[in-house]
Amino acid sequence: MKKQSHISYTPEDFDSPVKHGSTPVARPRVHSADLFGSAHEVLIEHAGEEYRLRLTRQGKLILTK
């Protein structure tokens, strides 16, 4: 069974809007600590595919399919 999580955003979580065409679009900001918790890897499902986002010992992020 897949664990579903819901992330809610507040206005402070958004960077200044960027333009997409002629319409400004706000970008949500998610802190890596909120994604990882005490883990070093999270699974991300996107368009029916599974991706792994890993946190390295050097503190860098690696996204693989």
The overall strand count is 5
CATH superfamily of the domain at 32-65: Complement Module, domain 1
- What's the overall average pLDDT, rounded? 81
Sheet with the most strands, sense and barrel status: 3 strands, antiparallel
The end-to-end distance, rounded to whole angstroms, is: 21 Å
Low-pLDDT segments, ≥5 res: none
- Order of SSEs, N→C? EEHEEE
Beta content: 35-45%
* Basic shape: extended
CATH topology of the domain at 32-65: Complement Module, domain 1
Helical region count?
Answer: 1
Radius of gyration, in Å, reads 14 Å
- Provide the CATH top-level class of the domain at 32-65: Mainly Beta
Could you estimate the helical fraction of the residues in percent? Answer: under 10%
Structural class call reads mainly beta
Strand order of the main beta sheet, please?
3-4-5
The CATH architecture of the domain at 32-65 would be Ribbon
Walk me through this protein's architecture.
- By secondary structure, the protein is mostly beta strands.
- The chain has a domain at 32-65: Complement Module, domain 1, CATH 2.10.70.
- It is built from one helix and five strands.
- It has one helix spanning 32-36, and strands spanning 18-20, 23-25, 41-46, 49-55, 61-64.
- A three-stranded antiparallel beta sheet has the order 3-4-5, with no helix packed on it. Strands 1-2 form a two-stranded antiparallel sheet.
- The longest helix has 5 residues, at 32-36.
